[in-house]
Amino acid sequence: MLERLREIEAETLKQLESIEDRGALHRLESATIGKKGEITGILRSIGQLPPEERPAVGQLANEVKRRLEAAFAEREEYLRQQELARSLESGAIDVTLPGRPVPTGRLHPITRTLREIYAIWAEMGFQIYRSREVEEDEVNFTLLNMPPHHPARDMWDTFYTTTEGVLLRTHTSPGQIHVMREYAPEPIRVILPGMVYRYEQITARSEIQFNQVEGLAVGHSIHMSDLKGTMAAFARRLYGADRRVRFRCSHFPFTEPSMEVDVECILCDGEGCNVCKHTGWLEIAGAGMVHPVVLKNGGYDPAVYSGFAFGMGVERITMLRHGIEDIRYFWGNDLRFLEQF
Ligand code: FA5
Description:
It is built from 11 helices and 9 strands. By secondary structure, the chain is an alpha+beta fold.
């Protein structure tokens, strides 16, 4: 029996040396030290041996079993390393490949324009003031010098709510009244950004909701020249230092005098194109000196205080900067458009 145990050990160790796959390794393992293996069989049958042989056979069988267990484990580890080396060599994993990109969101083109506008006005000392989008008829029109039934109200087609006297603001100008009433008689320098709503036909240049940025400066000795200089400085910061700016007479009930601010067309450099309707100029804002009635409604004495105001359309500004031909892209939620920014 002792002889047989030594034979099994020697044969198994020899076979192990040449085994190259894990299936064969496991088969040899179960034939020797597995549950039905020969060595396990010998250990089980020790009881049938003559008592004087039992200790020696038992001891050797256990020793052989332990040594073979170690040998099998060592060979198994060796085969595993070989497999790993082979799969790395065959290029199944290329650790130099860049990782899969995580899809990231991005800022809406209007948000980006708004942030640039905020930064330019901030440098000139204008703070942001947030005003409500659901507004009273009185503030949107009456306090801005447009009493009920005044024909100037027709300039803004309006969404009314089912509550009498409550509407969606048609422009950011009612915010002028709120900020003046909050700060009078302090001097004011604010911009009022936000969404406005108009009951208009939607076209390539007109939406029923769009963003405006209103501006308001109130104080002592504020003149038309301050308005012109400030608007020109803003336009040059946004569109480039050598852009020409021009001011045209206009009319708004809440400013006197009133004007429109035009910038030399950025698409054709003033030569004339479809976008500027062959004039070479693009309108960016309405503006003017705050009307005495509006100053009074805001709590400022027009004999002592003066001010200027302006209102610009953010979608139109963004269209011009990026050559976007249709305003409807902004709220169409089409990723093919949004991913370009
Ligand atoms: C106003 O809304 C005045 N409140 C502006 C103002 C403020 C004048 C303070 C004087 C003092 P207007 O209706 O022109 O004016 O609109 C201002 C800007 O909003 C326009 O120059 C244009 O850029 C933009 N805009 C007007 N209607 C639309 C529309 N339907 N879709 C997109 N942008 C529009």
